[in-house]
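Letters spell out the chain; the tokens describe the backbone. To illustrate:

===
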Amino acid sequence: MLKEANELNERRKRRISLDELIETVAVHMGIEAEEILSSSRKRLISKARALISYLAICEMGYSGTEVSRNLDIKGASVSECVERGKKILENESDIRQNLIS
């Protein structure tokens, strides 16, 4: 458990701006950052928002309010995105390495 806490602390030290995270996820997923910030409900864009939400809140220590404001979505939606993002990263573990390494 101590090892996990130290790893989380190290990841939070490498915190990047939310704009940079959005751009990184957009490039990784082959979409434009503007699409992530749009009101689109396309599956790929929803997946990108979920990844951003999870990484920003759980890995980098941003608040849900900050993420909500940057993605222009409601707070409850951010919470749902975090849960989806967690599942995505559990099933596709290589994504984390590509996005925050």
Notes: Residues 48 and 83 are 13 Å apart (CA to CA).
